[in-house]
Specification:
Length: about 475
């Protein structure tokens, strides 16, 4: 139990430290390098804390550039932490080093050397080496850089993302797609990256011997610059053009890099001419990519541009319910699911992250999942997602919806045509604002808090047995949250 509590404390401290680093480093650098860090083992005797990253590349990058900053931040948060080590997560397999044009043979070269880029006389064949086996996996997280958990099966569809999902499935099918490249456009955390990984999984299942390249545009830039500095551009080009499926995430980050844009342009042309498949993802449409040369822009938009809209509340509910299937032993009340789906509306990643954090905290501390626990433990996420909806705004919207005068919200009239809209407004005020029952009562003509409690409970009950009332409330919620 003590170890569990220590893990909870470390996670809480890391949440605060990570938030501070986000302000210092900016969203892009934080999202790419800091956000994936997970606190690991902590030795109290030596004061050594391990921080885990998913790949050797990211661990080395963070250790080289942010180790001092991380160490200082932890020492401020927890004076007992004296040393910080940045390591590869022990649960992740470290990938083989990619050696291009080197004079030595890889220490772990397989027996079938000729199939892995080594000729029969023992000399290296760099072009063959980059096109075979696991050598090119150094660019990703696994054999093809694909996350095993992000498949089409685990992707929940709704009206906002069904076009993108169907297009992604076509891109991974056995039959040649009618369009290429596929360009997935959507805001942060709406499922673009999930679909990229899902395409990779499905394509590999349909084409077991296929060569797949997955990376972010920023990672593409790092590899490009490294190859340029080491005079290995021939090998870099051969490696890229040897893939059957090219998946590039966050393409907006290649903006302004003229030499990299030119190389990507030539790669796209070469792959398209050979009938290969290409998928790109970005947070904006191709036409909105400033600093991209016209030729590359035309290539990105010549296929299908599939838009992923923000998830509506029905889809958010479905995503949470689907996610709960992974926690069969955890009881999450329906009111908690409704609360999370309604409140965390910026993006799906935050929504799932909030549920994961809530369940992890409940399991580690032995507490039951409840609405109160969700409000206490997800303060940062909830405050970032909550739009400041006022009671005045609620009253105005309800009056317009039911076509009654605004003064009826504070009047003493008891006619049903007035009372029911007033009760709905009280219910919405409790659901959508942090105001207490007495505060809400004062905004409705100085009514007692017991009147507000009665209204809230009544509308909750009516929603369960009156489809028309539930439809009215849902419609009002959509208007107020949009």
């Amino acid at each position: 139990m003590e170890e569990d509590q220590e893990a909870v404390n470390l996670a809480a401290d890391w949440a605060d430290i990570s938030q501070g680093l986000r302000k210092d480093l900016g969203h892009q650098a934080h999202s790419q390098w800091i956000k994936p860090i997970q606190p690991g083992n902590y030795c109290k005797e030596t004061g050594t804390l391990d921080l885990y990253l998913p790949t050797e590349f990211s661990a080395n990058w963070v250790a080289d550039r942010f180790a001092d900053r991380l160490s200082l931040a932890w020492k401020i948060a927890r004076p007992d932490v004296r040393h910080v080590r940045v390591l590869v997560h022990p649960g992740r397999r470290q990938l083989p080093e990619l050696r291009l044009g080197g004079g030595g043979r890889p220490a772990s070269a397989p027996a079938n050397d000729s199939a892995q880029g080594w000729s029969k006389d023992g000399t290296a064949d760099p072009i063959a080496a980059v096109l075979q086996g696991e050598a090119f996996a150094a660019l990703g997280q696994g054999p093809v850089g694909i996350d095993a958990s992000q498949t089409f099966t685990s992707f929940v569809t709704g009206q906002s993302n069904v076009l993108a999902c169907n297009a992604a499935q076509r891109m991974a099918a056995t039959e040649t797609p009618q369009f290429s490249p596929l360009y997935l456009k959507g805001a942060t955390g709406q499922g673009k990256t999930h679909l990229l990984h899902a395409i990779g999984h499905a394509y590999l299942a349909n084409h077991p011997h296929a060569r797949i390249f997955y990376c972010s545009a920023e990672r593409f830039m790092v590899e490009f610059v490294q190859a340029l500095r080491q005079n290995q551009m021939i090998e870099f080009k051969a490696r890229l053009r040897g893939f059957d499926l090219l998946l590039v995430d966050d393409i907006q980050f290649i903006i302004g890099k003229a030499s990299a844009q030119e190389e990507l342009l030539y790669t796209i042309d070469a792959l398209l001419q050979e009938g290969k498949r290409l998928v790109f993802a970005a947070d904006r449409a191709p036409q909105a990519l400033d600093g991209v040369e016209p030729r590359l822009l035309s290539r990105l938009s010549m296929g299908l541009v599939a838009d992923i809209q923000p998830a509506d509340i029905e889809l958010r509910r479905s995503i949470l319910e689907n996610r709960l299937g992974r926690f069969a032993s955890v009881d999450v009340p329906a009111d908690v699911i409704e609360f999370l789906a309604r409140t965390i509306n910026r993006n799906v990643r935050e929504l799932v992250g909030g549920l994961n954090k809530l369940i992890a905290y409940a399991q580690l501390t032995g507490q039951a999942v409840s609405l109160q626990l969700a409000e206490e433990q997800l303060t940062d996420i909830l405050s970032a997602n909550r739009r400041r909806i006022t009671i005045d705004e609620i009253q105005r919207t309800v009056c317009q919806f039911y076509r009654i005068d605004r003064t009826e919200m504070s009047s003493k009239r008891r006619a049903r045509a007035v009372v029911r809209p007033r009760q709905v407004a009280m219910y919405l005020a409790k659901v959508l604002t942090p105001r207490s029952y007495p505060e809400i009562g004062r905004k409705f003509g100085g009514r007692d808090h017991s009147t507000v409690i009665h209204a809230v409970r009544l509308i909750e009950e009516l929603r369960t047995r009156d489809a028309d009332m539930d439809g009215d409330v849902r419609s009002l919620l959509r208007q107020l949250e949009s």
